[in-house]
Description:
The chain is mainly α. The chain contains ten helices and three strands.
Amino acid sequence: MATTQKGNLNSQAFETLRRDIISCRLKPGTTITEAWLTKHYAFGKAAIRHALARLTQQGLTINQGRLGYTVTPITIKSIRESYQIRRLVEPELCRMAAVKLDAEILTALRTCSEETYDRHNENAMISLSYANHRFHCLIATAAGNERLTRLIEELSDDHMRIAYVSMVYGQSDKEWSDDHANIVAALEAGKGEVAAQLMAEHLAQSEETIMRAVLNLPELLKTSLS
């Protein structure tokens, strides 16, 4: 019982901090400490420490030793490098997934692609960030390559935060849903090359949107791009 309760608290602390990093409540580039987090969140030191370890493992925070932790900055370099990897990998995953897609994953992909949001509703935007994350991870899972799946999961974690910023500063839910729906339709029809092309175009458009958002966002420029 005690072990289960401890595990639940650890998970709750991780999800709470992760959510606040994704929504930029904890701004990119900000320094945080275990003591500060314990004071501002309703979790004990052990749960906070566990959460920070997981966040660091997933690339959302950086361990600075005695100085505490830094919320990983959103930088021009990190965005470019991340999208470069995704453009190389994800179209190929679409080609692989098109011949292996099962009904369960297809249904889950449709559900993700139908997610919408209101720019004035933070919870809805965070929900779409998670749906976008799951959409890309599901395609990787369907492709059947476990190492590439882990890579996309790792990249997509930070992209949830990038997706959130892009929603706040310009990208419409229709752009997300239309792109995703078209990719799903191509995968369902077994058209791997078409799905790959659509994915490449989707990633290029997403990169352009987030770059435009970040470059016009003074508070992120101040903490992340200096």
